[in-house]
Amino acid sequence: MQREKSQKFALWRRQLGREKELWFWTLLFLVWWVFFFLIPLYGIVYAFFDYTPGRALTLDRFVGFKNFISFFQTRDAWMIIRNTLVISTLNMTVGFIAPIILALQLDELRQGLFKRATQTISYLPYFVSWVVVASIVTTLLNSDGVVNEVLMNLGLINKPIAFLTTGKYFYALITCVTIWKSLGWSTILYMSAIAGIDQSLYEAGAVDGISRWGMVRYITIPCIMPTIVLLFILNIGNFLNLGYEQNLLLGQSTTQEYWEIIDTYVYRYGIQMGRYSFSIAIGLMKSVIGLILVFVSNAIAKKYTEYSIM
Amino acid sequence: MKQASYIKRTVPGTVFDVINVVLLLVLSFIMIYPFWNQLVISLNDGIDAQRGGLYFWPRIFTFGNYSYILKTSGMLSALGWSVARVVVECGKHTALGWSVARVVVGTLTKLVATGFLAYVTTVKFFSFHKPLRRLFLITMYVSGGMIPIYLWYMKIGLTESFTVYWLPTLLSAYEMMIIASYIEGLPEAMSESARIDGANEITIFVKIIMPLCIPVFAALGVMVAVGHWNSWFDVLIYNPSGEYDTLQISLRNILIESDKIKKLMQDATAGSAAAKNAASRISTTSMRAATTMIVTIPIVCVYPFFQKYFVKGISIGAVKG
């Protein structure tokens, strides 16, 4: 018995000796992990306190769910939830269908320079930053920008349209710009799904005499359906993560009622105004709902397709 | 891709082909014209541009906007430097210098560190390799969020520093997964034999694994580098003083804060008569256009050659998640 134990111990020591160097590096990785993941994660407890930097978190500063409740008592709460839902829904419908159509259109082209060039050009906006996009859009859509100028020269309008500063245009504006930036890039997964379709299906279709539209309708679309469903489900997981960069950059003070979403609100209240506990609470609420969405969408994806991100 | 031979040539089919090509041409135009318009404005005389009517070609051609921007915002001094020198001498405090330094330092450190992490998680005999991978996978799904991270960085003095650009993104789960899956595809015997010969893990990683991982490092490196070049929000929240401003944030300041432009104008008019004359020919739009082009041109030059790496990256990511 005693002997067995000491043998085990010796074995364990030998293993540790062999792994000594790996443990050293692992400890370094873990230090980073604690510093840049775990401690910031612990910071979410501030949401339940009345936190002021530099003062210790004592139990008498514990306020429970007060920060969460006070968010729903603000007048902004429903405006923010509305904007988040509207912009997300637009992205998930119009923004989701557009790349599928473009991929099908590209597939109808013969292989060659034109197809490659169109694809490469359509990727360009994806590679530039949101700052560049915002700057370009501002120049184009300003009251003295090219778009207004052309519309006036064509006689369609009498005075310039204030695209950027009119609130009711903002949803359309942000959806168009977001699609413009990501359209070409989003086609990549569809294009690779289309490339993976078995050629014999088209041969069989040709033998049966189906038309070109028939091939798209009865072969291409059904074959890429799993990809479409999968990407749609994964998008649900990202429903709340609509970009805030474009909203911060393109939003004007006159259109704030339409561009303020959860992330921009957290940024403005937390970093600009220093209401830390309040904004952490809002961010936490969003993260929890987002995490639930990710798990639910992942579970659905697992059930209906062979695919899972976990 | 369907082969053309399957398709019968019909009149409606040809009509569709024509419409399809026209639509895609329109789309390409919409994708590319906004950039071209900026280029035209940036190469046109600023005051003249305010008259409008600039569509496809500058009316009064000038490089004045560029030379003005590069002079007044101290970007020019960094232009001629080699990449390595920019890193060494980033103390020159120019927006371009910080941008380049950030891209170089951020990309290199991340590839090496995350690559090594990925390697450690693939060493089968190491009893902790799976838990280590899982610990980092958690970071993909959960995070403290903007404000707790911000408060913590403030506390440990990471704000107002260059370090904040690269250290917090040093290790990342997404890149770790991609590199790890690539390493797992390599024959294990190679690192095993080196280990028997007495090589330590760092040597194995640097001498054996890294050279074999060049394709995946190239693909990820381009993605990480473009990400660093394009990021601005972390500059805005962590380094608000302006000392570590990158090009993106300078452009954002020109876009959002017209005060900044006025200051730049005043700086210029305080100089010689020639400088005054140059400044009088600049408008906000032309100045912004020139800055936009300075930020965009490196990307435009690089991305057609690197897009296949991006496509590879997104495909690996999609398969492996």
Q: Structural class of the secondary structure composition of chain B? A: mainly alpha
Could you state the CATH homologous superfamily of the domain at 73-256 in chain B? MetI-like
For the biggest sheet of chain B, the summary is: none
Number of strands of chain A: 0
Cα separation of the termini of chain A: 43 Å
Main sheet properties of chain A? none
CATH architecture of the largest domain in chain A: Orthogonal Bundle
Low-confidence stretches of chain A: none
SS element count, helices of chain B:
18
Rg of chain A is 27 Å
Estimated share of beta-strand residues of chain B: under 5%
The best one-word shape of chain B is: globular
Q: So, CATH architecture of the domain at 73-256 in chain B?
A: Orthogonal Bundle
Structural class designation of chain A: mainly alpha
Q: How much helix, percentage-wise, in residues of chain B?
A: over 70%
* Percentage of β-strand residues of chain A: under 5%
Apparent shape of chain A: flat
Tell me the greatest interface: A-B, 93 and 97 residues
Query: Order of SSEs of chain B, N→C?
Result: HHHHHHHHHHHHHHHHHH
Question: What's the SSE blueprint?
Answer:
The complex is a heterodimer of chains A (310) and B (321).
Chain A: H1 2-42, H2 66-73, H3 76-107, H4 113-127, H5 130-141, H6 146-153, H7 170-195, H8 199-208, H9 212-237, H10 245-250, H11 256-259, H12 262-272, H13 276-304
Helix pairs in contact in A: 2-13, 3-7, 3-9, 4-7, 7-9, 9-13, 12-13
Chain B: H1 11-42, H2 46-49, H3 64-72, H4 76-79, H5 83-88, H6 95-120, H7 129-141, H8 146-155, H9 163-166, H10 173-184, H11 188-196, H12 201-212, H13 214-230, H14 233-238, H15 247-256, H16 258-269, H17 273-280, H18 284-320
